[in-house]
Specification:
By secondary structure, the chain is mainly α. The two termini are about 15 Å apart. It has one domain. The longest helix has 27 residues. The N terminus and C terminus are likely disordered. Helix 4 packs parallel to helix 11 and helix 5 crosses helix 10. About 60% of the residues lie in helices and about 0% in strands. The chain is built from 16 helices and 2 strands. The chain has a two-stranded antiparallel sheet. It is found in: Membrane.
């Protein structure tokens, strides 16, 4: 693999912006108050849940870990790689399962998440990018949700074609049930399971398996927008800011190989190498479904990378064939 230089070139000041230059009055006026209140409420309850861990039953803790993985998969293997990028095709059973996982993650509907993500790729790090990293690390991480959308983002969203999403009954079903379906799967479902199956107190179920898991997965997802646009390497295209970040890949189930993904967004693996070389449980899930005949047409960019690399000066011979399982 051709490896470029380190990408950790932005200073801490550039990432967070100068405190002295923060336009607080403008931010207050431009605040998306319903989202500010909602996310503030969820974070407060997630913090409160920390005081309940010591008295929770072990089944609740294991259950929280398991559904955290399902929640993440609903984003990575579901709305991101399947619906936003159409990098593979899945049987209705897989799509329905991923929709439920996505609802548990509760990051908006598949339709709206996919639309915004397509805008992000088409207008990456411009004023039309929903979470434009050029506006600072906090904005890219979660600040973009706390303020009203830029007019250019709204206009770009109107121009993005998402008709394919409305042809999928799974996407339409979730959209019709919005927001109650997502809220039920994210908060009520974990509470009901833990109280019914092992008689956990309802507060432990909704706080730990509900709000703590939810907020944790939110930040794991947001790391791809923030940290993976600031820290790491850029071997596939040194001219863009998205990076290869192993830490983000760990927390985001393989989504941290972000320089590759922005160069080849249609690649279902969202990484160059196989799971033995790059942490990517989402790819492992998709490959497992493929072996069962539930996933087809997995797109890869290996040949495209070989062609691109041949045009890059001083690019060494790749070890691709040995590592791309």
């Amino acid at each position: 693999m051709y490896v470029g230089g380190n990408h950790a070139t932005r200073s801490f000041t550039n990432c967070l912006g100068s405190i002295n230059m923060v336009a607080w009055a403008e931010h207050y006026k431009n605040a998306n108050w319903p989202m500010v209140i909602y996310l503030g409420y969820c974070h407060a309850l997630a913090f409160l849940s920390l005081f309940y861990f010591s008295t929770a039953k072990w089944q609740t803790l294991v259950f929280t870990l398991v559904i955290s993985q399902f929640s993440g998969l609903g984003i990575t293997g579901g709305v991101h790689r399947l619906w936003a990028h159409k990098s593979y095709k899945a049987h209705g059973i897989v799509r329905f399962f991923l929709m439920l996982c996505n609802a548990m993650a509760n990051q908006g509907t598949i339709y709206h998440w996919s639309r915004d993500h397509r805008v992000h790729h088409k207008f990456s790090e411009t004023d039309a990018d929903p979470h434009n990293a050029m506006r600072g690390m906090f904005f890219a991480h979660m600040g973009w949700l706390l303020v009203k959308k830029d007019a250019k983002v709204i206009e770009a969203g109107r121009k993005i074609n998402c008709d394919d999403l409305l042809e999928d009954w799974v996407v339409v079903l979730q959209k019709k049930l919005n927001p109650w379906g997502n809220l039920f799967m994210s908060f009520m479902f974990p509470m009901l399971v833990s109280t019914y199956f092992w008689q956990e107190h309802w507060a432990h179920g909704i706080l730990i398996a509900g709000f703590f898991r939810y907020v944790f997965i939110l930040h794991c997802t947001w790391l791809v927008n923030s940290a993976a646009h600031f820290y790491g390497q850029t071997p596939y295209d040194p001219k863009i800011n998205p990076t290869e970040n192993a830490i983000v890949a760990f927390f985001a189930m393989g989504e941290g190989w972000h320089n590759w993904h922005h160069v080849f967004p249609y690649d279902y693996a969202a990484s160059e190498f196989g799971v033995a070389s790059q942490y990517n449980p989402t790819k492992l899930f998709i490959d497992g479904c493929a072996k069962l005949g539930l996933v087809t047409d997995r797109k890869r960019a290996l040949n495209a990378w070989e062609a691109k690399k041949a045009k890059m000066p001083n690019a060494p011979v790749s070890e691709l064939k040995a590592k791309s399982a």
